[in-house]
Every structure is written in structure tokens, then in C-alpha cells.
Design a protein that fits this description.
The protein is of the alpha+beta class. The protein has 6 domains: 7-140, no CATH class; 209-252; 255-298; 301-344; 347-390; 396-462, no CATH class. It contains 10 helices and 33 strands. The chain is rod-shaped and about 215 Å long.
């Protein structure tokens, strides 16, 4: 190093840029060894080349100068084919100097052109009639182009583009980037996205399903795809969910679709994930089935839980059973028809035994006026609406004595009133009529000395 220190040059030599920024530890060592760097120079040393950072925070102040070579190569010469540039960033700003490549210093102004020298000294860098490297003085036999170059080795050495040959980057889909000079497949070959390996002969498909960066939603199914992973193809939401299968999987509410719970009146309850109609579909009350396509009306009349009172009549109703509608008490009973049915006493109503004097006797259950209604004695009929007075005189059971006179009475026959013995007889008029001996009476044979003769006649049925 020169006796008179050029702080900028010295810093650049000791602290070469790496990853487009200087190393802070190296910068501190240089500053301590030189001891004369100004604050602005220190900031430039630490921050030159920073594209965007907050460490250290001071690098975001107005004192910062960025690496001017990062924009359009600082206006310096550049070989676009090999990306070799003459731009160098220093504390004072960018400097255009022709580069040194593999020990060979390019010549030129650094701004408009830089060219390889035609002759190089072998030992002390004096002129020697070879290009790049030389082994013998005879330029026809002793000059050879370095590895990665082709030419006569004397005046012409051209970089070989190994990417155009089939000897490098042989794996399928590998990307090849030509490097200056001898080809380094570790730098020039790259596996395509979704593959890992040396990029030369070996590129293995990366199974992203084994990583935690894809198919992150709960329950997502991951299917590895060949090459770069496409979560739209490789990630799938589990059954019953919809979404991109990557980070978003939303439960599908199948109840809003027409494919589940298709039976009329079925109740649908959404279930988390894949829809199970056995759990999510339910038949409405009064129906049985899978709740999906089949719901059959339950005939509660065949069960013992409805219409429990004796003699109740059960009529099945569509759907949920309503005992108020489906259960009915049998005729002659009143109640809810479910558990309570009470015998109706029709005798207390005016609809039965309507004839005058009819006698009503309540019967269990449905009223039968033929059994419950009776005409009063001396009447005949159904006992309901029709009761006709019986003319006992036409029957042979009354006024049985010969010659008795029978007079019908309203209602029950009273032979004492209805039966009369014929004239000349006395008795009950029913079975006994005895001849009256008028001779004993003073109403006959009234003349003095008249003789009265009794006629022995008697009417009876004996």
C-alpha cells in the first residue's frame, strides 16, 4: 500500500463488496487502522451499495450515497455478453476503470471501450506474444487459449458458450447460463423451479407436499405436481369444502343446494365438512326414513301411544300425529279421544225418547233407542218418537167374561174402568160377571101377587 494513504482506495481493497454491500466488521477495522476517516466517509463506506435497509438506521439519512454502479453501470463500459463492467464504486463516487479478468488487465478508457491486450509478459507482465496465457515462446505451438475459450491463442480467444453444447445442464428442463471462461455447471446450471439438484445431470422433483408452505388449510389434500408447484392443481379442499385448497377452504352448506334432503318437508342441518345425509337430513315429525329421498308417513294408529281410551277410533293424519284430529271417541262417548272418553247420558238430552211419557234408560256407549227408550204401559212403538196407545179391547187378555163390554182407556189399561159386565150382571167386568137376581129387588114384578122367577145365568170364562 502507498505511504500516503488514499483512504478510499485502501477501504475498497480491504473491504470488497459482498452481496452489494460492505461488511460492517471490516469497515470498523479499516477505520480503526487508518484513524482519519471523516464521518461522511465512514457512512459512505458502511452504506454504499445498500439498496434498501434499516440497519444501521443512520444509512437512511441524507448523508447516504448509493452504489452508482447499480444503475446503468454508472455510465461505464460494459460487455453485455459476459456482464463485465469497468464501473467501480468508491467513497468519492463511481470510477470507470477497465477490469482485470482472470489475471488479464483490460485496456481502454473505461468509459467507451475496454479491450483485451494482445501481448502479456510471462513473468514480470512484460510483453509476450500470447493471448491470456502462454507456455512456450513459439506462438504457433506455445500459445493456447485458457479453458473455456477457443481460438489460436495468439490473437484470437473467444469465450465458448457451453450452453449451446449438450455436455452441460443435461437434466430435463435445466436452465443454462453461460459463464465467462471455463464453464462451472454449479454456477451456470440451475434446476427449473420445483426441482433441486446440481443442475448438471441431477434434478429431482421437490415434493412440496412435505413442506408446510403449501396446502395450509386444515384438512386440505396435497397432491405433488411435477416441477414447480401449482397449489391450484396440487391442493384440494377436503370433501364438503370449497376454495383454492391453499389457504382458504370454506365449508359448503349443502342445505342451500337441491341435492340433499330432497323429500318433501325434510329438515336439513348443515354438517361440518362432507355432508352426511344420515346425520344432516331428518324427516319431519310424523315421518320416518333416511331424510334424504325417502320419508314415509308414520301410521301412529298402529302404535299404542295414541288413542289409548277403550273403543277409541284412530284415523291416521298426514305427518305429525294430532290426537285431537286423529283420535275420536266412539259413538255415545265424549272426550279428547286420546286418553279420556266418557259415556254420554243421552237421557239428559232432548234428542232421544221424545214421545210423551216415554221412559229413557241410558245405555253404555252409542245410544240405542230401541233398547234405551220404552213406551209407557198401554203404549206400543219404538219408544223414540212413536208411541201409540194400545187398544186392549182388541186383545183377548181383557174383559174376558162373556158379554162384557170393553172400553179402551188412554195409556195403561185399567179393566176396572175399561171392562163392564153386560146388563143384568155384576162383577169386575174382567173375568167375573154374576147374574143379578132382580126378583130380590123391588124393581120387577111389582104387581101384588105377581110371582118372580129367577133365571140362573152367569157369564164368566170358567
Amino acid at each position: 500500500m502507498e505511504t500516503t494513504k488514499d483512504y478510499v482506495t485502501d477501504f475498497a481493497i480491504r473491504c470488497p463488496m459482498k452481496d452489494e454491500k460492505y461488511n460492517k466488521q471490516c469497515a470498523d477495522q479499516v477505520i480503526r487502522s487508518l484513524g482519519k476517516l471523516e464521518r461522511s466517509a465512514v457512512l459512505k463506506a458502511l452504506c454504499s451499495g445498500f439498496r434498501e435497509t434499516t440497519e444501521p438506521p443512520i444509512c437512511l439519512t441524507e448523508d447516504i450515497e448509493t452504489n452508482e454502479c447499480l444503475q446503468n453501470n454508472g455510465g461505464c463500459w460494459v460487455d453485455k455478453r459476459t456482464n463485465i463492467t469497468a464501473c467501480r464504486d468508491t467513497f468519492r463516487g463511481r470510477v470507470c476503470r477497465c477490469p482485470i479478468v482472470q489475471g488479464v488487465k483490460f485496456l481502454g478508457d473505461g468509459y467507451t471501450h475496454c479491450e483485451e491486450p494482445l501481448f502479456i509478459y510471462k513473468d514480470d507482465l512484460s510483453f509476450f506474444p500470447c493471448f491470456f496465457c502462454c507456455c512456450q515462446n513459439d506462438h504457433l505451438k506455445g500459445c493456447k487459449c485458457p479453458p473455456g475459450f477457443s481460438g489460436d491463442g495468439f490473437k484470437n480467444c473467444t469465450d465458448v458458450n457451453e450452453c449451446e453444447e449438450k455436455t452441460v445442464c443435461q437434466c430435463r428442463g435445466c436452465k443454462c447460463k453461460n459463464t465467462w471462461g471455463s464453464y462451472d455447471h454449479l454456477k451456470g446450471c440451475k434446476c427449473p423451479p420445483g426441482f433441486s439438484g446440481d443442475g448438471f445431470k441431477n434434478c429431482t422433483d421437490v415434493n412440496e407436499c412435505e413442506e408446510k408452505t403449501v396446502c395450509q388449510c386444515r384438512g386440505c389434500k396435497c397432491k405433488n405436481t411435477w416441477g414447480s408447484y401449482d397449489h391450484l392443481k396440487g391442493c384440494k379442499c377436503p370433501p364438503g369444502f370449497s376454495g383454492d385448497g391453499f389457504k382458504n377452504c370454506t365449508d359448503v352448506n349443502e342445505c342451500e343446494e337441491k341435492t340433499v334432503c330432497q323429500c318433501r318437508g325434510c329438515k336439513c342441518k348443515n354438517t361440518w365438512g362432507s355432508y352426511d345425509h344420515l346425520k344432516g337430513c331428518k324427516c319431519p315429525p310424523g315421518f320416518s326414513g333416511d331424510g334424504f329421498k325417502n320419508c314415509t308417513d308414520v301410521n301412529e294408529c298402529e302404535e299404542k301411544t295414541v288413542c289409548q281410551c277403550r273403543g277409541c277410533k284412530c284415523k291416521n293424519t298426514w305427518g305429525s300425529y294430532d290426537h285431537l284430529k286423529g283420535c275420536k271417541c266412539p259413538p255415545g262417548f265424549s272426550g279428547d279421544g286420546f286418553k279420556n272418553c266418557t259415556d254420554v247420558n243421552e237421557c239428559e238430552e232432548k234428542t232421544v225418547c221424545q214421545c210423551r211419557g216415554c221412559k229413557c234408560k241410558n245405555t253404555w256407549g252409542s245410544y240405542d233407542h230401541l233398547k234405551g227408550c220404552k213406551c209407557p204401559p198401554g203404549f206400543s212403538g219404538d219408544g223414540f218418537k212413536n208411541c201409540t196407545d194400545v187398544n186392549e179391547c182388541e186383545e183377548k187378555t181383557v174383559c174376558q167374561c162373556r158379554g162384557c163390554k170393553c172400553k179402551n182407556t188412554w195409556g195403561s189399561y185399567d179393566h176396572l174402568k175399561g171392562c163392564k159386565c153386560p146388563p143384568g150382571f155384576s162383577g169386575d167386568g174382567f173375568k167375573n160377571c154374576t147374574d143379578v137376581n132382580e126378583c130380590e129387588e123391588k124393581t120387577v114384578c111389582q104387581c101384588r101377587g105377581c110371582k118372580c122367577k129367577k133365571e140362573e145365568v152367569m157369564f164368566n170364562l170358567q
